[in-house]
Amino acid sequence: MRQVKDLLKSKGNQIWSTSPESSVFDALQLMADKDVGVLLVIQDDKLVGIFSERDYARKVILKGKASKETTVKDIMSTKVLYVSPEQTLDECMALMTEKHLRHLPVYDDKDLVGLISIGDVIKAIISGQKIEISQLENYIKGLLYGY
Predict the structure, then answer these.
(1) Which domain holds residue 108?
(2) pLDDT tens for each residue of 105-134
(3) Residue (of 99, 84, 97) closest to 125 by Cα position
(4) CATH number (domain holding residue 36)
(5) What digits encode the pLDDT tens for the residues 28-82?
(6) For residue 95, how many other CB atoms are within 10 A of its CB?
(7) Phi and psi of 4, rounded to 5°?
(8) CA separation (Å) from 144 to 132, 134, 136, 141?
(9) Using the 8-state DSSP alphabet, how is residue 65 labeled?
């Protein structure tokens, strides 16, 4: 069973972040520059929230606020669930599905070591299934043809 640490080894552990005092506009600019849909919000080396495109759409645009005058802390999601490197991808998928989450920070003890997305998890699970299917096909062929 693949674990979060395996996923981080293959995808890397790059984390993009912003401060709670940053303007929403600046955070969106960073997201566009880095081609990501979420930023971790870090203050004094501590994770205090997550800022996503969804937060922007629902809490700025739909409420008629201006992104240059609104700070990240005013709209970020502060309830942040996280996983450990030892958790399985199936556990992450279940948590993300149950809680309607698209991103999970990864903590190794008290250290932030990465960020995974639902897309990362799905891609890794599908890749693992393809390998398993191929191995089963080869096994069956071996039984049928006596390899």
Answers:
(1) 4-145
(2) 999 998 999 999 999 999 998 877 777 787
(3) 97
(4) 3.10.580.10
(5) 999 999 999 999 999 999 999 999 999 999 999 888 899 999 999 999 999 999 9
(6) 16
(7) -55, -40
(8) 18, 15, 12, 5
(9) -
Q: What is the spatial distance between Cα 75 and Cα 20, in angstroms, rounded to a whole number?
A: 9
Q: How far apart are CA 15 and CA 126, in angstroms?
A: 24
Q: Which amino acid, one-letter code, is at 27?
A: A
- The candidate with the shortest Cα–Cα distance to 121, out of 144, 92, 82, is 92
Residue 75 DSSP symbol: H
What pTM did the predictor assign? 0.83
Coil/strand/helix, residue 117: strand
| Whether the Cβ atoms of residue 16 and residue 30 lie closer than 8 Å to each other | yes
- For the chain, the domain total comes to 1
